[in-house]
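WARN no homologs supplied; continuing
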Amino acid sequence: MTIRVLIVDDSLTMRAILMSRLSEEPDIAVIGTAANAMEARELIKQFNPDVVTLDIEMPGMNGLDFLEKIMTLRPTPVIVVSGSTQEGNEVTARALALGAVDCYAKSDRNGGLTLDDSGALATLIRQAAQVRFNNRWPVSPMVAVESRRVARSGCAMIAIGSSTGGVEALQILLKDFPADCPPTVIVQHVNPRFAPAIARTLDMATTATVQLAEPDMPLRSGHIYLAPGGDRHLTVAGSGTFHARLRPGQPVCGHQPSVDVLFKSVADCVGPLAVGVLLTGMGTDGAQGLLALSRAGAHTIAQDEATCTVFGMPRAAISLGAAEVVAPISRIAQHVLRQAA
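OK structure emitted
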């Protein structure tokens, strides 16, 4: 099946570059281009594209405002196309929090523009085309998958994994975390360029402090630590008191950092005093790690299908019997913090 793409960018040059990058892909067809939100709205109504690439630094209607309208009125997989500026990174992080499924950097690491991006945009488009939006965050009851609760004496650490749609889900989850929440570690699959801006966006959503994890950083109550991305896995080490480790290694489940790697380290160090949460995402990363947490006696939660942007990672964990509870995103914080009481 051909994936139909609409390109929205105020730069004629950038529209031509993006079209060039997609022109050799036999399963992708650019069905139109737009220079602003008004043109894009008419083309979306006319052609109903499978995926939209959206430049959010546009004149006229701001790209963030247009994205919010898309997600409210006509939910469509959107890939944010970002410039290399710090301001562009901040706006991209906010766009991901509004429901964009992924982000794509216009330029390479050196800030240059080339016609060839080694298929990176095409890969993101293929992944985005698999997203199916359900009703936005419906309220549904928690589902106990099986009754295997054990006596726990509080919670020493919360570990969270997420991917496609995860920034939006994390924002909803963390807004209910108190200022004295247990130490919380997160792996969110994202381009490392945008990780600092995502940490700042999440920090504004919660009374706890959100920051990027650093090597050998002590993990303290009231703090939430986001993996910085790149070529290092985030793990937890210690006994009683814990600290972060960032170590090189091969990708696991295609990802570096990997949710599986983080979860397994938490299972080894924290065991039954941990809570593991696996949120929306494509693929299977985190499923084996959540199973390891469950076997170590930790409390484990998976996001339900109705509120996932992509149900792949939670589905994989549930199929392994790794999730003690399956819950909608709006109720996961309540359940997590009950373990910490």
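Residues 137-153 have pLDDT under 50 and may be disordered.
OK
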